[in-house]
Specification:
single chain; 631 residues; eight-stranded parallel β-barrel; six-stranded antiparallel beta sheet; 34 strands
C-alpha cells in the first residue's frame, strides 16, 4: 500500500508544475494517474441509474451525491430502454439521457459513461433489446453478423448524441466504458471487442479515454481487456485490495489504479434474504483505496426501482428473478433518502478532498395514505376483447413471446382439452419449456401453475372440448452469464397425459396499453361476460381509487395477504409484488405519480389468489425484508 501512496504523491508533485490549458482528460502512464486539464485527478464516484428513478427526482438525487463529496457519477445506458421496438428510439421524459447529463453538469458532477451495448445491471436481458432474439440462433455479445449490425445501428445513434457531452468538448463525460465485464461471458470474442473499439473511436474521437471493467480473476481480465482500452477491475468488501490491484497491474502495468464497481450493497432475488453490507467495512475499504491513490466508483450509490418489467434475472443452478426494488442497501435508499452508510462514506471522503459546505438535502417527505379497498374487475380470460383486441395468433404448436413480437409482460395460450379427463391428469412441460410462470385454468376455473426449473408437472381435469387457458408471465430475462438469450413463453410442446396439446390460440396481452388508456376505471359501467364458474382465484384484475388529500408525497404500497402480481397507479406500472415469496413486502410509489386533486386509480393484477379483504395499504416507510416467519 505504501508504494501506492508514493506513486500518487509523485503524480501530484509532477502535476503541480503544469499550467492548465484547454479542457483535457487523459491518462498519465508515467506518473500513474488521470490528468484533468493537465493536473492529477482522482475521481470518487457513485453509480446512479436514471432509468430506475423518475426524472422528477433526478436533480434531488444528484444534489445529494454532490453534497456527499462525490466529484463524479457513473451511468449506464440501457439500450432496450431506449429502443424497445427495433428502429424506434425514445429519448424523451424519463428516457431523456441528455437532460440527465445536463442536470449532473449543473450540479458539478463529472460522468463516467457506460453505454454498453451490454450493461448487466440486473436489468432485463442486461440492457440488450429482446427483439434481437427474433433471430433464433443469434449469438449475443459476439461477432455474429446480425448482432453486430444491430449494435452498429444503435451506437451510430447513441454515440453522436454523447460526443458533445465529452469533457474535452465542453461537457462532463470524462471516460467511456466499452461493453461491460466481457471477461465474465463465455464467448471471449476479441473480434467483437475490436469492432466495438473501432465504433467508439470513430464516433467519439481518438482522445476519449476508453476503458473496460472486469471481475477480479485472471480469466475475466484476459477475455475482457483489449489493448487501447484502459483495463480496470471491480470488487467488494471481502476482497484483498492489494491483490486485486496487483491483478490490474498485470494487465495494465502503468496508469491509475481503478475500482470501477466497489460494492456498497447487493441485489435481492425473490426468495432471498434481503442483502445488507456493513457500512463500517465499506467506509474502511474506501479509505484504504483512496489512500493508495485509486479512483473508485461505488456501485450502487443509489439504486432506485425496477419499475414495469425491467428487472433482470440470474440463472446459475436455477432461474431466479430480481425483485422490483433495487435499493441495493446503497448509501441513498430506493426513495433517495440519506442513510447512515452515506454519512460514514462522506466522513471518509472529507479526508481526501474538500467537500461542499452546507447540510445534506433531507429525505423526501413520506405519507401513510392508509387503506384502500379494491373491487374485482374480472379474470383475464373474460377480458380478452379489451386486453387483446386483435385476433389471436393461430398455431399448431406454441410460439414464443419473441415469435409473436410480444416481448414483455403476459401472453395467454388457449386450446381445448382433447378428451374427457374425469380423474386428475398430469399437464407436463417435459423440456422445462415454460418461461417463466404459467397460470392454468379450465373453463375459467384456476387449476394451478407451472414454474420454470421448479414445477414442471401439475394436474388438471375436465371434459373434452373444455377451454384450457395458460397465462404465461415473463418474469424478466437473464441479465448475466451464458443464458442471456432467454426466450419467453411456452417454448416446447406440453403433454396432457400421453397427448400432445395442439391447435393453440395465442393472445398477446397489451395490459399496459389498456390501463394507460384509462381502463378499467373508464369502463367501470361496462359489464363483462364471465366464463363458467369464474372465481377469485387465478389471474384476476382488481381496481380502486386513492382519494386525493392535497398531498403528492412518496409512499409505499403493501399488499398483505395478496399472493403475486403486478400493480399500476394512474397508468404507471410500479412493478411486481410477491410478498408470499419475499423478501420485498412494499412497492415504492414516487409522490409525483399521485394527483393532489383527482382520484388516483389503482389497478392490481393478482395472478394466484386475492385475500377476502381486498385491501391494500399505503405506508410511510418501506419493508424490504420478509416479516418474521416468512421466507
Amino acid at each position: 500500500m505504501a508504494s501506492g501512496v508514493l506513486l500518487f504523491a509523485a503524480c501530484l508533485a509532477f502535476g503541480g508544475n503544469l499550467v492548465s490549458g484547454d479542457r483535457s482528460f487523459s491518462i498519465d502512464y508515467k506518473n500513474n494517474c488521470f490528468l484533468k486539464d493537465g493536473k492529477p485527478f482522482q475521481y470518487i464516484s457513485g453509480s446512479i441509474h436514471y432509468s430506475r428513478i423518475p426524472s422528477y427526482y433526478w436533480k434531488d438525487r444528484l444534489m445529494k451525491m454532490y453534497m456527499a463529496g462525490l466529484n463524479a457519477i457513473q451511468v449506464y445506458v440501457p439500450w432496450n430502454y431506449h429502443e424497445t421496438t427495433q428502429g424506434v428510439q425514445n429519448f424523451t421524459g424519463d428516457r431523456d439521457l441528455e437532460h440527465f447529463l445536463d442536470l449532473a453538469n449543473q450540479t458539478g458532477l463529472l460522468v463516467i459513461l457506460r453505454p454498453g451495448p451490454y450493461i448487466c445491471a440486473e436489468w432485463e436481458m442486461g440492457g440488450l433489446p429482446a427483439w434481437l432474439l427474433q433471430k433464433q440462433n443469434i449469438i449475443l455479445r459476439s461477432d455474429d453478423t446480425d448482432y453486430l449490425q444491430a449494435v452498429s445501428n444503435w451506437l451510430a445513434i447513441l454515440l453522436p448524441k454523447m460526443k458533445p457531452w465529452l469533457y474535452i468538448n465542453g461537457g462532463n463525460i470524462i471516460t467511456v466504458q466499452v461493453e461491460n465485464e466481457y471477461g465474465s461471458y463465455y464467448a471471449c470474442d476479441y473480434n467483437y471487442m475490436r469492432h466495438l473499439q473501432t465504433l467508439f473511436r470513430f464516433f467519439l474521437g481518438a482522445d476519449t479515454v476508453l476503458f473496460t471493467t472486469d471481475g477480479n480473476t485472471d480469466r475475466e481480465m484476459m477475455c475482457g481487456t483489449l489493448e487501447g482500452m484502459y483495463a480496470t477491475v471491480d470488487f467488494g468488501i471481502e476482497t484483498n485490495i492489494s491483490e486485486a490491484f496487483e491483478r490490474q497491474r498485470r494487465f495494465e502495468p502503468k496508469g491509475p489504479l481503478v475500482n470501477s464497481e466497489f460494492y456498497t450493497g447487493w441485489l435481492d432475488h425473490w426468495g432471498d434474504q434481503h442483502a445488507l453490507v456493513n457500512a463500517q467495512k465499506v467506509s474502511r475499504l474506501l479509505g484504504q483505496m483512496l489512500t493508495m491513490g485509486a479512483s473508485v466508483n461505488m456501485y450502487m450509490f443509489e439504486g432506485g426501482s425496477n419499475f414495469g418489467y425491467w428487472n433482470g434475472a440470474d440463472h446459475d443452478t436455477r432461474y431466479r428473478a430480481v425483485v422490483t426494488s433495487y435499493d441495493y442497501d446503497a448509501p441513498l435508499s430506493e426513495a433517495g433518502d440519506p442513510t447512515e452508510k452515506l454519512l460514514a462514506i462522506r466522513d471518509v471522503i472529507k479526508l481526501f478532498r474538500e467537500i461542499p459546505s452546507g447540510p445534506m438535502p433531507p429525505a423526501t417527505p413520506k405519507f401513510a395514505y392508509g387503506y384502500v379497498s379494491l373491487k374485482k374487475v374480472g379474470s383475464i380470460s373474460s377480458l380478452l376483447s379489451i386486453l387483446s383486441p386483435l385476433s389471436p395468433v393461430k398455431s399448431q404448436h406454441p410460439l414464443s413471446f419473441e415469435e409473436i413480437k410480444q416481448f414483455y409482460g403476459y401472453v395467454l395460450y388457449r386450446t381445448k382439452l382433447p378428451r374427457d379427463l374425469p380423474q386428475p391428469t398430469p399437464l407436463i412441460s417435459p423440456l422445462n419449456g415454460v418461461h417463466d410462470r404459467a397460470y392454468v385454468s379450465v373453463n375459467g376455473v384456476y387449476q394451478g401453475l407451472l414454474e420454470r426449473d421448479t414445477a414442471l408437472v401439475m394436474n388438471v381435469s375436465g371434459q373434452q372440448g373444455d377451454t384450457l387457458d395458460i397465462l404465461v408471465e415473463n418474469m424478466g430475462r437473464v441479465n448475466f452469464g451464458s443464458q442471456i438469450n432467454d426466450y419467453k413463453g411456452i417454448l416446447s410442446d406440453l403433454f396432457l397425459g400421453k397427448d400432445i396439446l395442439m391447435d393453440w390460440l395465442i393472445y398477446p396481452l397489451d395490459i399496459d396499453g389498456a390501463i394507460t388508456a384509462g381502463w378499467p376505471q373508464a369502463d367501470a359501467e361496462k359489464s363483462f361476460t364471465p366464463l363458467q364458474k369464474e372465481t377469485s382465484v387465478g389471474p384476476v384484475f382488481y381496481s380502486g381509487t386513492l382519494q386525493p388529500n392535497g398531498l403528492s408525497w412518496d409512499t409505499f404500497l403493501k399488499l398483505s395477504d395478496w399472493t403475486k402480481g403486478q400493480v399500476w397507479i394512474n397508468g404507471i406500472n410500479l412493478g411486481r409484488y410477491w410478498p408470499a415469496r419475499g423478501p420485498q413486502q412494499t412497492l415504492y410509489v414516487p409522490g409525483p405519480l399521485l394527483s393532489t386533486t383527482q382520484p388516483n386509480n389503482i389497478t392490481v393484477l393478482e395472478l394466484e389468489g386475492a385475500p377476502a379483504h381486498l385491501r391494500v395499504l399505503f405506508m410511510d416507510r418501506p419493508q424490504l425484508d420478509s416479516p418474521a416467519g416468512k421466507s
